[in-house]
Write a structure and sequence with these properties.
The protein is α/β, with parallel strands linked by helices. Helices cover about 35% and strands about 25% of the residues. The protein has 8 helices and 8 strands, in the order E-H-E-H-E-E-H-E-H-H-H-E-H-E-H-E. Strands 1, 2, 3, 4, 5, 6, 7 and 8 form an 8-stranded mixed β-sheet that branches. The longest helix is centred in the N-terminal third of the chain and has 14 residues. The protein starts with a strand and ends with a strand.
Length: about 220
């Protein structure tokens, strides 16, 4: 039994089900619109899942209900991220696993005040994130505002974390099997980056940090 928490448009729901036929799958999100889109995606791919409106800070699922929880790029948008971590641990069975990712406070975000001239230069030659009110993100002064704006100007909260800080938040509840960086948004640049260089940037300067976790038995 698995849960995709903050399923959005259902991308991860389908990815998990395609790799695990017959899985007892749950998908949860804060909005009805997300669940409607996920249901259409499930129908298109011929899969089924239990869909629920849930607040990640206060889940209604029973204790130790799931073998695995997937939560990608979600809890950095919540007011109380620590409460979300505690809830994910609560609904997991002892020995269960979780895969969580959040925004990483990488070298660019940490040093944005120094790198802002580079942002202005990139903007002047055409660097843009298209749509959702993000067009001027390279001109922002505040690094936390950059994090918030990445998912659009309607996004109320966006937080980023160092590996050390987020690991401290996880350790009261989980054993950390693995952590790694990923995702470098090269599509915003006005020039292409060769694939080997793009992979290097994603692995060493990525904007997301991923954690493979296990709840102690």
């Amino acid at each position: 039994t698995a849960l995709d928490l903050g399923c959005g448009v259902g991308f991860w729901v389908i990815e998990i089900l395609e790799r695990n036929p017959g899985l007892n799958m749950y998908a949860a999100d804060l909005t009805e619109n997300a669940l409607q889109i996920t249901q259409k995606r499930l129908q298109h791919y011929g899969h089924s899942a239990q869909l629920d409106i849930q607040n990640a800070e206060n889940l209604t699922y029973e204790d130790a209900m799931f073998d695995h929880v997937n939560c990608q790029g979600v809890i950095h948008h919540t007011p109380n991220t620590q409460a979300c971590i505690k809830e994910i641990a609560r609904v997991l069975k002892p020995g269960g696993t979780a895969y969580i990712s959040v925004y990483y406070r990488n070298i660019f975000i940490r040093n944005w005040k120094l790198m802002r001239p580079l942002g202005k230069l990139l903007y002047s030659i055409g660097a843009r994130f298209k749509g959702r009110g993000r067009e001027n993100i390279f001109l922002e002064k505040d690094e936390d505002e950059i994090t918030r704006l990445y998912d659009g100007d309607q996004n109320p909260i966006g937080k980023s974390y160092s590996r050390q800080d987020f690991s401290k938040m996880l350790k009261p509840y989980f054993e950390i099997d693995q952590s790694f960086l990923y995702f470098f948004p090269s599509r915003a640049l006005p020039f292409s980056i060769p694939k080997p260089q793009h992979r290097y940037l994603a692995r060493h300067m990525g904007f997301m940090i991923h954690f493979n976790l296990r709840k102690p038995s």
